Amino acid sequence: MTILATLLTRSSVISSVHSFTQSGVGPVLLGFFILVLGGGFTLFALRGERLASQRHPESVLSREGAFVTNNVILSVFAFVVLLGTLYPVFAEAFTGTQMSVGRPFFDRMAVPLSFSLLLAMGIGPFTPYRRASGTVMWNRLKVPLLIASAAIAALVLAGLREVSVVVVAFLVVTIFAGSIRELVTTVPELRPRPVMRMLVKRRGYWGGQVAHLGVALLALGIATSGTLSERTSVVLERGGSTQFDGYSVTYEGSFERQGGDRQATVARVIFEADGQRVFTAEPALTQFNNQVQAVATPSVWTTPGRDVYVALSSLEADRISLNLYRYPYMWLLWAGGTLTMLGGLWALGFWRRRQQRAEAPKQEAELAGGSRHV
């Protein structure tokens, strides 16, 4: 699917802001795609029986069942993206009608799947193997659910009214509280050394837990930045001002900036609060020597609470058209991605240890055989 996406965007199959229709690598990518696809299915045909598990989950309400549910949801997620991407291509090929599948389709399909994935991912690690009873699950989840309910009540009282953000925040707090409860109830005593010993002893499990927490933060970042964002388009004369996100935004002027293979026309936009300059944005329209159309380069102002994007849509002698965006808590995306990566790296040590334990008897046997030979 990665190669397919590259093929679609580099060979003018689709018209998109992400496509590069002047590229001539389409036939090469198509051949490589066919080679990889044919080779992959050939390996499945020859060795598919090795992928079949001899054990099946006894119940959907078990840790094994939660793993299967996670995999099914992720597979459906991938199919939704594939369907939304390829449907316009096949529709135009068979009917000659051009159409596009936009954000409403993906929101309608992906949002319920995302909630289901977070729910399965949050409950799965705390579910017993083989079969889970209601009593056991309630004993393990009642404290995390109570903590999450209290946190969400506080957010609602503070003014949060977006249902999707409330639901995601509830699931995220539940996952974090459940992981902390698991650590507290598992470790012999809450001191740094016993905790570290437990994390090292069960690298695979706790690495997965850390990765789950990272995915939860990613989901929260996507929900807050997408739902609580603010966007507007304005036209400003030189010296003109407008209000955005509590700031006075003023167009001060423009200037030219030369580069090796490009020439940029840069606008200087001033953000002021209480009469004080707090940020100077310099969005640009960049003209590359080998391209006909200029490329808009936004200016980004990053703070812990939100990111502000300032982008040019047009620039004249004494007038500009600006697109202003405010996305709150974008740092959650970076924190979630970093946490997911760290969890994977931590779990990687588990596999290395297990491989070393598996190789140890062979090395001992080889050493013993060498001693007898001597």
Overall mean pLDDT stands at 82
Give the CA-CA distance, first to last residue: 56 Å
User: Sheet with the most strands?
Assistant: 6 strands, antiparallel
Secondary structure: helix percent: 55-70%
Task: Describe it.
The chain is of the alpha+beta class. The chain has a domain at 230-331: Tick-borne Encephalitis virus Glycoprotein, domain 1. The protein has 9 helices and 10 strands. The strands form 2 sheets. Strands 2, 3, 4, 5, 6 and 7 form a 6-stranded antiparallel sheet that branches. Strands 1-10-9-8 form a 4-stranded antiparallel sheet, with helices on one face. Helix 4 packs antiparallel against helix 8 and helix 6 packs antiparallel against helix 8.
Short overview:
The chain is α+β, with helices and mostly antiparallel strands. Helices cover 56% and strands 20% of the residues. A hairpin with a 3-residue loop joins strand 8 (299-302) and strand 9 (306-315).
List keywords for this structure.
374 residues, alpha+beta, Tick-borne Encephalitis virus Glycoprotein, domain 1, four-stranded antiparallel sheet, 10 strands, 56% helix
